[in-house]
Amino acid sequence: MAGIRVKFGAAAVVAALLLAGCGDGNDGSDQPGSGTLRVATSALAASVDPMAELSASYLRSVGAAEGLMRIQPDGTVAPELAEKVEATAPTVWTATLRPNVTFWKGGTVDAKAVVASMERARTENTLAAGLLKDVTVAATGQRTVTFTTKEPTYSLPYALAHYQLVIHNVSGYPAGFSGTDPATADLTGPYRITGFESDRQMVLERNDRWWGGTPGLARVEVRKVADPQARAQIALSGQAEIVQDLPTERAKELEAAPGMSLVAKPAANTVTVYLNPTSTAAPALADQRVRQALAWAVDRQEVVSLATSGLSVPAPSWLASNPAFPDATGQGYTRFDKVTAERLLDEAGWTLGADGKRVKDGKKLTLRLLTFGAEAATGEVLQAQWARLGIDVQVRNVESSLINQSIEKGDWDAVTQAWTTLGDTAKLIAAQIGPGGAANHGKYTDPRIEGLLTQAAGAAQEGERTAAVYELNKLMVELAPSIPVHPRVLATGIAKEVTGFVAHPLQYENIVQPKMTLG
Amino acid sequence: MTVRRWGAGYGLFIAGAVLVAVVVLLAVAAPLISRYDPAAQGVGPALAGPSDEHWLGTDRFGRDLAARVFHGGRTTLLATAAALALVVTVGTVVGAVVAALGSVVDRAARHLFDLLVAFPVMVVALALVGLWGPSLGTALAGVLIVLWAPFARLSRSLVRSALAEPSAVAARALGAGRWRLLRYEVWPRLRGPVLVLAAVEAAQLIGVVAGLSFLGLGAQPPSAEWGSMLQEGRAALWSAPHLVLAPGVAVLVTVLGLTCMAEGLRDVLDRAGQAVPE
Prior knowledge:
The complex is a heterodimer.
Chain A: H1 2-20, E1 36-41, H2 56-61, E2 69-71, E3 77-79, E4 82-89, E5 92-97, H3 111-124, H4 126-131, E6 135-139, E7 144-149, H5 156-160, E8 191-197, E9 201-206, E10 219-224, H6 228-237, E11 242-243, H7 251-256, E12 260-275, H8 288-296, H9 300-307, H10 338-347, E13 351-352, E14 358-360, E15 363-364, E16 366-371, H11 375-387, E17 392-397, H12 400-409, E18 414-417, H13 425-433, H14 447-458, H15 462-479, E19 482-495, E20 498-499, E21 517-518
Parallel strand pairs in A: 1-10, 1-11, 16-17, 16-18
Antiparallel strand pairs in A: 2-3, 4-5, 5-7, 6-7, 8-9, 9-10, 11-19, 12-18, 12-19, 13-14, 14-15, 20-21
Helix pairs in contact in A: 8-10, 9-11, 13-14, 13-15, 14-15
Chain B: H1 3-6, H2 8-28, H3 30-33, H4 65-101, H5 103-118, H6 121-132, H7 136-164, H8 166-173, H9 178-214, H10 226-234, H11 242-271
Helix pairs in contact in B: 2-4, 2-11, 4-5, 4-7, 4-9, 4-11, 5-7, 6-7, 7-9, 9-10, 9-11, 10-11
């Protein structure tokens, strides 16, 4: 039996080596750990250093980085490099590492290495620093790491699953490291980087030291193709086995294509229209009734049908795209209600003129809506729906940097953004409506918010925390700082010969997965 | 003047004029011949092909493509016509005044005209859009900054040569006033070449307006405009080619018509012995 295994292994290695050298063609086989998977993505890592900007999530998305924890497709969190993570005291979480986990180059992933990785993340990356704020990390054993927080923090496992806290070998990244030399990168994961061109292409090979067994592929070639139409052509022509972020307007064509499947998954990012209550150009937005009217007047089913070719689903509340909070789909604007919208506008003094436009004190109800990327289509459908209510909306599709600039200057009425809803939910909601929240663009306040946020983050019972999260979600509907529309769509083209792909609501978990094979 | 004397240029001019007239007619009559509001979504199934109900099919939002092409013509042609009227008037007047003033002003103006003519229209329009944000008005403002200069240069040159003609010199010696000189000596030599240049620039302007809208920097949603329609249709080029064909043919026919008009007119004037712009 052992002899057979050795022969099989040798044959597989020889086959993999032969296949890997066969150039661009799809040289897949049904043996595990063989075949070259070609991937076309809309974006790629800027650096092989996960602590560099715009790198960690992309490295993770291609199987080249792992964290202590991982978010599952159902929204729950599960151990990854950690064997388990448990609360050992109200303010202490203890992570026990898996045995025999090594970095690509063979160094052991022990408690000291994890602490060093966390501390480098805290120093080098502002996002990581935010995740580890008020958290002390210490090695308390060969395989034991403790995380001590100031206050009881029940969401720490979600923070440990964040892509920015992937574990890397600090000694592999000396000061002055260029960030683009794959030879010096040292992480964990089923695939290790062997070729790298910043923001252009990446070559990965199977990591035989991976703790999870033999990865399903010998080689992965990832290429950035910025134009969505070009990606669609690549998918249709079979030039790549996985094509990420396909344009939804070509859904029918892609669904009908032989040799591939279009896998569409609503992402855990709600496409939301943020409203500025202090806008001088659209002072009507200061009135909560007007904001609510805009939300009620959105026919989400029509938006989904026209703007995403039916690949998404309506999001009646902001949290509705988070699979861990299924009841959120029953909260908020669960129906299209033009009558309520009209009543609210009438109450707010915006009456319908003879020309079909809403007017108050001689001024028309108008607003400017800035959209970005694929959300342009959503913006156009909203423009038409709000026009039926008598509101003039000027839509402009611009770069995301221009949206950020407009928000910083305060010169904006409404913008679309799609912040993630999956992770440390209390913190994510705090970012939406908490004081100083990164997505609280309109600086909304309410006396109920702070208490509910405290309860959502720190209540002893899980049920109490969940109830507070739902209450906050309801409060967002009432205050209407923003209008949830639909989850962003993750439309991925998967070649028929690819097996083991599991659609995930997080973009960075939705490309190369360890158990994927070419059959 | 007979058709025979005008030669092939006349036929070309007439052919071009007919094409342009058809396009203009469809655009002007758009509200009468369109069955649907060009901005109304969901009037038909998304991405449907041509049918009795929707002559040119529908786009991804279920909007009637025929209505959008006809109304899009209004946007494109009106914007082009307005911009052209302004640059022709401003350019011709400035060129004539500079030529009449002569000396230092003339030399300085000549350099300014040369400088402006060297600027690509598209680049200036893009710069303005970058400063003020995308809109058809901004894009046209960029066009206006540059496009009056070729008319000014042509006008200056023609006015100078017209005033140097023996008949003009004699008229001036006999005491003819400035207006009389302009009316009888300058204008007859100016109008033909300016018309040719206007037709050439109109074709270019259509391309610039459609090009900027194609890039998302001109007309904004839900305005129907040929360039933005081409951009929207590009996504479904293979599965729904009618989205690109309809506005594409509209642009092609209009530009072809204007170019034929310009070439025909140039030929006619050339045969008549008038100076014509290259």
